[in-house]
From TrEMBL:
Family: Belongs to the IMPACT family.
Occurrences of domain Impact N-terminal (ranges): 18-122
One Pfam family it belongs to: Impact_N
InterPro entries recorded: EFG_III/V, Impact, Impact_N, Impact_N_sf, Ribosomal_Su5_D2-typ_SF, UPF0029_Impact_C, UPF0029_Impact_CS
Superkingdom of this protein's organism: Bacteria
Protein name per its UniProtKB record: Putative YigZ family protein
Gene Ontology cellular-component terms listed: cytoplasm
PROSITE patterns to which the protein is assigned, alphabetical: UPF0029
Amino acid sequence: MTYRTLATPCTGEIEVSRSRFLADVRRVETEEAAREVIAQVRAHHRDARHHCSAFVLGPDGRLQRSNDDGEPSGTAGAPILAALRGADLSDVVAVVTRWFGGTLLGTGGLTRAYAGAVDTALQDARVVTRELREQVDLPVPHTDAGRVESELRARGVTVVGTDYTDVATLHLSTTDPDGLDAHIAALTGGTAHGIRNGPRWADADG
């Protein structure tokens, strides 16, 4: 199972009938973190009339919330949420700040503006795929650590780090634990064995 999220924060701004709509989209992993971002944006742009928001959380995007922040019901938070879902993103929060320009936009105009601001922010967004990876510890003699690490990296295994005590313990991350077991056996002549510590979500590129 995989899902997509932001690699880095992104922003985008549009103007509609002299109203400014500034979208701030960031990666978060908890509802608490999402609400903290919303509060930060609100505090940063105190002069704005509305700070409408939505967030999507979890590998399956099951946790979804939106807020119209004083705009007519369904004209702000829901379009922001739809834009995030349309981009197939999770673990993200979007806040769209509006500075009123003096002209009422109507429900259709507001819906398009709030969604459009998020779409603009996401146009150049860096997106990363997250995947479920087994975390494995591999104890090996100090004399073998460098060679084993190099060979595993060459086979596409992620080496998260190494701890040195009486042995060198390589901390590994993989989507194919059975294949990793085979690599370890081949590289060490069957003398070393990985210790599985359970799966964890990780960015596919790291």
